[in-house]
């Protein structure tokens, strides 16, 4: 299971989330506490928004704690909206193209979780990506495939509904050809304006997800694990939730792709 963190608010240095806190994302990459895999050494990535519409992207296959370029970049780059991810592979190769976040146009996406038995229906999943979007398919992960199918389902118009439909299609496929758990998902995505996050599982074991508004930063952190154990104010996202973060507000809506999958 992977670990990730996202931020939306007043611009801050990336290191304020990625490396400086006591339980920062880099610390979690070799000492995670809220997942079965404590070590996340199969690459990392950061997507951040600045003056341009499309995000900047830096990914590598090195463990996050051992890359001096990452430390230098996060100490110099400021952003008001960014996402960072450390990867523990669930089967696909360790390569830059398989590292999160994934980007397409102005959208960025990252995922912690799994789609059960994905190797058994990889070809079927690939076929769900429309031809117009297939050139965006750079790697081999289930996460990138889910992202591209969500784009084809209308992510631009309605992110929650598009992701529900995409997840439902993968759950239905996993039920037919894969294995339980059909889908476990803690994901974040952004169009450069709003930050969205989802916590969901087709069984009772949804991956952990938390958020916290910081008055000092004037920003919202959304994370797999709280960044500072001694800091209060961390709020756990309920399972089966789709969250929209705008300034210090959080809109939580139900996220229920299983209903659509059962009808498929």
Question: Could you characterize the architecture of this molecule?
Answer:
This protein is of the alpha+beta class. The protein has helices at residues 15-18, 25-31, 68-76, 122-127, 142-152, 159-177, 257-263, and strands at 3-13, 44-48, 56-60, 78-86, 102-104, 107-114, 184-190, 195-201, 210-214, 219-223, 235-236, 241-246, 249-254. The strands form 2 sheets. The chain has a 7-stranded antiparallel sheet. Strands 5-6-7-8-12-13 form a 6-stranded antiparallel sheet, with helices on one face. β12 and β13 form a beta hairpin. The chain is globular, with a radius of gyration of 17 Å. 49% of the residues are buried.
Number of strands: 13
CATH C-level label:
Alpha Beta
Largest sheet: 7 strands, antiparallel
The dominant shape is globular
List SSEs in N-to-C order.
EHHEEHEEEHHHEEEEEEEH
What integer value in Å does the Rg equal?
17 Å
Strand order of the largest sheet: 3-2-4-1-10-9-11
Please, what is the average pLDDT?
88
**CATH homologous superfamily title:** Aminohydrolase, N-terminal nucleophile (Ntn) domain
Q: How far is the N terminus from the C terminus?
A: 28 Å
Helix run count: 7
Helix amount: 10-25%
| Beta-strand percentage range | 25-35%
Spans of at least 5 consecutive residues with low confidence = 32-40
In short, what is this structure?
This protein is α+β, with helices and mostly antiparallel strands and 264 residues long. It contains 7 helices and 13 strands.
Spell out the blueprint of helices and strands.
Layout: E1 3-13, H1 15-18, H2 25-31, E2 44-48, E3 56-60, H3 68-76, E4 78-86, E5 102-104, E6 107-114, H4 122-127, H5 142-152, H6 159-177, E7 184-190, E8 195-201, E9 210-214, E10 219-223, E11 235-236, E12 241-246, E13 249-254, H7 257-263
Antiparallel strand pairs: 1-4, 1-10, 2-3, 2-4, 5-6, 6-7, 7-8, 8-12, 9-10, 9-11, 12-13
Helix pairs in contact: 5-6, 6-7
């Amino acid at each position: 299971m992977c670990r990730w963190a996202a931020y939306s608010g007043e611009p801050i240095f990336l290191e304020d989330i990625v490396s400086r806190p006591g339980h920062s994302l880099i610390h979690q990459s070799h000492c995670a506490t809220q997942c079965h895999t404590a070590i996340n050494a199969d690459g990392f990535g950061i997507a951040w928004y600045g003056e341009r519409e499309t995000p900047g992207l830096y990914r590598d296959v090195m463990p996050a704690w051992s890359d001096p370029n990452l430390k230098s970049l996060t100490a110099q780059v400021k952003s008001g909206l960014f996402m960072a991810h450390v990867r523990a592979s669930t089967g696909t190769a360790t390569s830059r193209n398989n590292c999160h976040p994934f980007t397409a146009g102005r959208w960025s996406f990252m995922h912690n979780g799994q789609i059960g038995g994905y190797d058994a229906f990889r070809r079927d999943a690939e076929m769900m990506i429309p031809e117009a979007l297939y050139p965006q398919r750079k790697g081999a992960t289930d996460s990138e495939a889910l992202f591209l199918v969500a784009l084809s389902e209308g992510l631009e118009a309605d992110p929650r509904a598009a992701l529900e439909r995409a997840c439902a299609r993968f759950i239905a496929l996993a039920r037919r050809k894969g294995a339980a758990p059909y889908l476990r998902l803690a994901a974040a995505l952004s169009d450069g304006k709003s930050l969205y996050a989802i916590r969901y599982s087709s069984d009772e074991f949804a991956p952990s997800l938390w958020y916290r508004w910081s008055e000092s930063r004037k920003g919202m952190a959304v994370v797999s694990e709280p960044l500072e154990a001694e800091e209060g104010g961390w709020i756990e996202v309920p399972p089966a939730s789709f969250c929209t973060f705008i300034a210090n507000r959080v809109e939580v809506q139900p996220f229920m792709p299983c209903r659509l999958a059962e009808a498929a």
